[in-house]
TrEMBL record:
InterPro entries: BrxB/BrxA (IPR009474). Pfam families: Disulph_isomer. It comes from Paenibacillus dokdonensis. PANTHER family: BACILLIREDOXIN BRXA, UPF0403 PROTEIN YQIW-RELATED. Belongs to the bacilliredoxin family. This is BrxA/BrxB family bacilliredoxin.
C-alpha cells in the first residue's frame, strides 16, 4: 500500500487545522485571501500563525482556545499555517512588521494595524494558561 507524501501530510495536518477552525477561526490559505481579509480590516483581528511543532500543540492552540472564552474577543478571527500554506503565511507576516517570521505566533490588529504580538519564544516557555492571560489582557485593552 502506497500513500503519497501530500496525502500523508494532509491527513497529519488536518487535525491541527481543525483545532483552530472548530473555534470559529477562519483559515486563510492564499495570499489573496490574506489580503482580502487583513487589508484595512475594520475593528479588531486575531491572526494565529499555526505550526506543527510541539509548542503549537501544547501551548499556542490551547492558549488561543482559552483566550477566546474572554468576555471581549476580536471581531475577526483568522489563521494561516506556516510550512503548509507558505505564500499565505508570508503575506500575513507582512502585517506583523517589525517582528521577524515566527511560528507559531499570535497577532492582534486593530483597524489593520498591529497592536500586540506573541512570538514563538514567548509561547514555547509558557503555559497555555499564561498565553491565554496575555491574550485576554490584549483583548480587554483593544477590543472596546
Amino acid at each position: 500500500m502506497s500513500m503519497s507524501f501530500d496525502r500523508y501530510m494532509k491527513d497529519m495536518i488536518q487535525p491541527m487545522r481543525d483545532e483552530l477552525t472548530s473555534l470559529g477561526i477562519k483559515e486563510l490559505r492564499t495570499p489573496e485571501e490574506v489580503e482580502t481579509h487583513l487589508l484595512d480590516a475594520p475593528g479588531t483581528t486575531l491572526v494565529v500563525v499555526n505550526s506543527v511543532c510541539g509548542c503549537a500543540a501544547g501551548q499556542c492552540r490551547p492558549g488561543v482556545s482559552l483566550a477566546l472564552q474572554n468576555d471581549l474577543v476580536p471581531d475577526n478571527l483568522f489563521t494561516v499555517f506556516a510550512g503548509q500554506d507558505k505564500e499565505a503565511t508570508a503575506k500575513a507576516r507582512e502585517y506583523f512588521a517589525p517582528y521577524p517570521p515566527s511560528s507559531p505566533s499570535i497577532a492582534v490588529l486593530k483597524d489593520g494595524e498591529l497592536v500586540h504580538f506573541i512570538e514563538r519564544h514567548q509561547i514555547e516557555d509558557r503555559s497555555a494558561q499564561e498565553i491565554a492571560e496575555d491574550l485576554a489582557e490584549a483583548f480587554d485593552r483593544v477590543c472596546r
